[in-house]
Amino acid sequence: MGANVGMTMAKGMAGVYFHSSALLADAAHSLSDILGDVVTLYTFRKSRKPADLTHPYGYGRYEALGTLFVSAFLVAAGVGIGTHAFEHVVRFLPDLFAATVSSGVAESAREILGSVAGGSSEVAANGGGSSLLSFGHDHNHAATHTVDAAGSVVVDPRAIWFAIGSIAINEALFQATMKVGRRTNSDVLVANAWHHRSDALTSLVSVGAIAGAIVGFPILDAIGGLVVSIMLAKSGLSMATDAVREITDTPPSSQLTDSVSDALAAVCDDIEEVKGVDCVRCRKSGPFVHVSVNLLFAPDETAAAVERAADMVRSELRKKLDYVQTVDINTTTK
Predict the structure, then answer these.
(1) End-to-end Cα spacing for the chain
(2) For 182, how many CA atoms within 13 A lie in the half-sphere containing its CB?
(3) What are phi and psi of 288, to 5 degrees?
(4) For 150, which of 3, 61, 195, 224 is 20 to 30 Å away at the CA?
């Protein structure tokens, strides 16, 4: 969490100081990570409380509620950043259109952009239109910044180092969190690890956007902010969908059900009294799974033997799959 706080502050101040839309968008992404870390820590501990009278199936779904909250925040942030970046892109369109008309049919997209980059300074000098070089950076900051010949603010090349540093830090966080998540068999930590990896990719987009601005096409910086916003919204919607599916008792993936069925079959093969396994159903609750299964027994099997075999199945299955929290067993004769 401390790393995310530091990165948010550094990238936010650098984005304002160096006038980088992509870096500001990346800072907003890091801000969402702080909230994600808080929710992850809280739900990780809460979801592992033992079942009680008020929560007979445990507290596992606290993770789903937390995920739903964070995903809503991510979607809102993505929409806000995307709207802001889109407004800047629209500012650029008149210059692009004017350059296209004045130069006729260009041989390539680069020729058009080059014409705009060269002509926009003249527009700015004459006090009219929207300069490509000043695009998206009309904030009045007291900080020192790079200025072109027409007096327009441009993206400072030093901004790229903050994005590169963010890639390295987030990749390190991914590796560390994934290691702990696998050791503790925690789905929420593994998911948070992949969130760190997505942050590294987001910063990579920022690097490309800022680099484009440095080489003479500042419009790419704002486009980078738009791409980051799309990544935020997509991530949030995906997380929200998974959380809603869990809260509404939608069956988990067939891969999970198959792994539970295979484990049950292996357990029952070692218990002589059990003649078969039928109707395996799983219900996800945060990091845990509740299993319902029908065991088949011989008609002449005693009630004591059936009960003893059922207890053995519960115990052995939970030993094999530590994420299985409860096992509800129905018995029928074969």
Answers:
(1) 55
(2) 7
(3) -110, 165
(4) 224
pTM check: above 0.85: no
Cβ partners under 8 Å of residue 319, min gap 6: none
Distance separating alpha carbons of residues 78 and 241, to the nearest angstrom: 16
Question: What is the residue whose two structure tokens read 């409860």?
Answer: 326
Of 152, 153, 170, which Cα lies nearest the Cα of 207?
170
pLDDT exceeds cutoff 60 at 160: yes
d(CA 98, CA 232): 33
119 with 135: CB under 8 angstroms?
no
pLDDT at 138 over 80: no
Spatial distance between the Cα atoms of 316 and 98, rounded to a whole number of angstroms: 74
Instruction: Answer whether 196's CB lies under 8 Å from 36's CB.
Output: no
Whole-angstrom distance, CA of residue 112 vs CA of residue 104: 10
Q: What span, in angstroms and rounded, lies between the C-alpha atoms of 84 and 137?
A: 12
Tokens 């052995």 sit at which residue? 316
